[in-house]
Design a protein that fits this description.
The complex is a heterotrimer of chains A (800), B (291) and C (206). Chain A is of the alpha/beta class. Chain A is built from 26 helices and 26 strands. The longest helix of chain A has 18 residues. The chains are: A alpha/beta (800), B mainly alpha (291), C alpha+beta (206). Chains A and C meet through strand 3, helix 9 and helix 25 of A and helix 1, strand 2, strand 3, strand 4 and strand 5 of C.
Amino acid sequence: MIDTNVSRRTFLKTSGALGALAVAGTDAVTADSLFGAGVTVADAEPEEKIVWNHCAINCPGRCAIKMHVKDDEITRVETYSLDSKDMNDIQPRACLRGRAYRAWVNHPDRINYPMKRVEGTKRGEGKYERISWEEAVDTIAKNHKEVMEKYGPEAIYMNYCTGNYGVTARPWFRFLNSTGGYLPFYGNYSLAQLMWITPYIYGSKVGAGSSLNAANDAKLILMFGTSPVETRQGGAVSHHDYVAMREQTQGKIYVIDPRFNDSLSGHSDEWIPINPGTDAALVSAIAHELIKNDQVDLDFLHTYCVGYDEETLPESARGQNKSYHDYIMGTGYDLVEKTPEWAAPITGISADKIRSLAQEIGTTKPMFVDQGWGPQRRSNGEMTGWAICMLPILTGNIGLPGTSNGLREGSYSVNLTSLPDGKNPVKAKISVFSMVDAIDRGSQMTEKADGVTGVDQLPHDIKFVINYAGNCITNQNSDINWVHDVMSDESKCQFVLGSDILMTDSLKYSDIILPDLFRLEQPSMIGTGGDGAYMLAGSEPYAPKFERKSAYDAAALIAKALGKEQEFTEGKSQEDWLKSCYEQSRAKDPQLPTYEEAMEMGVYTRQNPKGAVVVMDKFREDPVANPLDTPSGKIEIYSEDLANYIATHEFKEDDKVAPIPIYAPEWYGVETKDEKYPLQLSGFHYRGRLHSSWGDVDILKELNPQEAWINPADAEKRGIASGDKVRVENEFGKTELLAKVTPRVIPGTVAMAQGAWHDADMSGDRVDKGGCINTLTTHRPSPFAKGNPQHTNICEVKKA
Amino acid sequence: MATAMAELPLALFSTLAPMGAGAFVILAVLFSTAKIDGDALKRIDKMTAIPVALVIVGFIAAFFHLASPLNAFGVFAGIGASPLSNELVAGCVFAVVMLVYWIWAMTGTMSAGARKGLAWATAVLGVVFAWFTGMAYMIDTIPSWNTLAGPIQMVGFALVGGAAVAILTLTLAKSADALKAGTMKTTVLVVLVAGIVLGLGGLAAQAAATSGMGNALVSGADLVGGALMIIICGAICLVGTGVCDAFAVRGAQEGALVGISCGAAVLAIVGILLLRLAFYAMQLSVGLSIM
Amino acid sequence: MTQQAFYFDGTRCTGCKTCVFACKDKNDLDVGVAYRKVYEVTGGETSKDDNGCATTSCYSYYTSVACNHCDDPACAKVCPTGAMHKDGDTGLVTVDADKCIGCGYCHMACPYNAPKVDREKGHSVKCDGCADLVAKGEKPSCVMACPARALDFGTADDMAKLGEQADSAPLPEKSYTKPNLYIKPSRDAKPAGDASAKVANPLEVK
């Protein structure tokens, strides 16, 4: 009798037509018809199929995931790779996390059934019992109805979450609009401060800089607080693009960062260590030198900008020493000349070094200036982000080959239309960082003091929260201990709906939990890009397991219970929406392949026909014909709008604000650290996680240990050696992790990767054993954007 | 140091088996120089179960060290090429001869000449086995081990440990008096001292050399520093063995003899085991190997 | 025999460990076993003067290493059973699981930390150069995974055209085993045996 699997598989491999049968799946009929009677089905090993899909976490990489699937299990994860040495090929190769999907998808803590919080337990305890979908949906609908009737849609909120991206990945906004509306947010946790200030500088239509390959033409490249290889790790985003650029450019690169980050590895001569939060002081001193040495591009400043000096100030500001030039040269509002000697002790960069850097900046063109989102994720982030843009502005390195605009690198992308959100009747908005505040004291939050927009004051506290595919209630939010107190108080928020794939720290604050699918377990598409554009499309490797449902299907069920199914679905399934959205995308971008072709290809790539994105090139070419979307149509170094904003809003005394890009000392910064907490503490993005995603996957945790980077000078004083368990603490909490004693961090600063999973006994000592930095971060928002200043911290470190 | 503990089965093997083997040196000298009556021989043969058991327990420990002991017969494939094969072959030849000797002796049919010859063969093969056990670690990518100090200390441990085991064996066989005769006494003292000198000297030489080495992962000085406490404890135990046994052969009271020789043997086992762990803790590769 | 070899571009590698995880996925490796490892070498100092200004001589670079399928493999040399052997066609060093006794000598002897005894499996395990993929004309999983495209694989002759035979820290001098690993070292790379070049991520390369 023929019995080995090998012979059957070999046979299939060599027989095209019959092989196709196997792809359709294995069943007794197929096996028997191939081998005749006598072959037991158990002997016939199921055939492997290949299913494309994409990564969907909060990284523009969204890389290709090529799944080998056998017997409804993913047996291997590959990605899109060509056997090619050409760095200019677009290959969205998945990073280490993408290659660890199997361990995540099959995690023992996956949510498989709807659950409710066990009666008598508090939010945060994490005790849940299985319930039916019917009970879950009824409970959610009942609470939604109650809150809507009692308070109205302003009391309903969908929390910021970043664990699921794709054309149809965000059905909950649509659900909320279909069922009466909700209180929306503005901003995000990635770049709230810079996003808020950029429209004042460059107008609302400029959101990023040139693509990294534009720096191939630069002679000098300044990277402020950024590690492109770490923050976006895929094979067709900044990891690859930065490595390719570094190889191809003739330009000298400087990375200005408190940390010798991985973008510097092997290239140590490029590192300029700086104290966190002081980039604006460095820029000011460089500006001082440029002005002193006549190295500013006055033509550019007068033609393309307002506010550099008296002659381009708006009428309202003239004659009051309000220009940038006045600020720098010591005749402005603080009467301090921003000399290198002034900046040296603040920044930790010697006056000589600042001078030589200024000399290079003043004499080298083209210059490409890029900032990461670390410098702006701070208490002075709006001012810092703006200040960094001053280097290309002062030297006229904008809109020309080899330049950028000082914002983070931009991309050439495929843009796909997403599932429409629908219309929201609510006018009010809050800053994304304000959710817990709005639960705690929403009805007291105002436009003047708290950054509420659309209304003068919120009518109600938030009473109903949806937390979908995100860990931003506690883990990724600031001041976890305070958040716990607010969220666990049931007299405040009436109801929290959680939906996720794993039990996260944030999910423990849910009243009802719904079991979600990974993006790669459902049909999906996404468009993105780096130097080159690409689109990823794929389907489900197997039918949903256990009682898991897609968010779309879950939202549809609840909409139905609220009598709004038709409004939500319009009679379409998720896949129907995917197709119709894609047809809209194709109408706008006819080069795109058909839906069927896209699904078949898995990965569609497109080279930038211009080679590189050079931001603001049209404006540079003709500023009159192509003005910016600012009040003056020009780059605003002095913003009259901002001056008005400052005049009409409330700020705390230690919030240093100005209508020009000043250096604002931080609340918890190099100039305000004290004896009790003598070290600065800054977070960074870790390679083994994406924020907190993958943070509980053992194989990744093992080889990406959670460590506090500390300079030998600081470690020795405290008797700390590499590998020691240390406790990092400040007024907000205590967390424990391992020490990495390394010259890769500037003395006086401790660096900790953000995103580690919070692990504390919240009814006990609250000491976090997981090394989660948000045990130590403040929930005080930044002055303008009311954004998360999560890198602005001071601390002490002790051996645990 | 914690990593060396992972090699505990190997350390037990390389402690116990060579100790058992070394005991036959004293027994061989005894049979060659002293006249022993039949009853005493019977008692000695019975108690020879102690060194035999040590060898067997040692080999069992080695077996436990292997992830697939069932494939163990394959080791003969590497004779001549793999130092481990050489060691195991030397060990097997020794063990077979030892067992032949002991089983034959236990039958009571062994002639004095055969006894003398086989005891010497066992003793010599035992020392050779100890030497090869040391040689097994002479790997050119591990310079801290790639030294004759390794086999030398193994022979030293076999001698001093073996002497302690032999003294215990004879004491329990109520034949300790034989050790107090002039030639035997001298021989035992010489073996004890030689064993201690070779064992500790070998280890000290190795530690001194290692502390000057380093690779990208560890510095030899750190390795030696980490092992220093157990080296000192092991050395104290080993010297203690010598002192106790010297006392035993130089006129300890009959009543105290069992206790003293037992104590000496236990000190030897503990001391050699600690020194073997120290040896494993001083593994320093030319590259990146970590135990 | 056509000897196969790895190539590693130290100027491109950023230490992300995607190679490690692609390998772990391909070979179904759980916690405790990785056939490929990424070593961080860091040295120099970053300190501040009395004025609070920092100066730095810090350097840091990564090296991704699996089995180098050496011409003169230390592992095979000490193997008592011949389980660890070089393939006659490809020169890839692999373990014959049926012969291996799991004694751990290969693990001790290999200066690249490549083989390791997997006690559950009952034998030594290590990178086999993805021999199954290579036989199909593909490249190893790690090579095809690298987002920065710092790895390659092919005949030793071809790889030798791309870089130098591995002789930089933290690796041992090439003379010990004649590794089939060719490297383009980064500017920061120190020569093999340089006493200042220390592995700074010991927890990640166990």
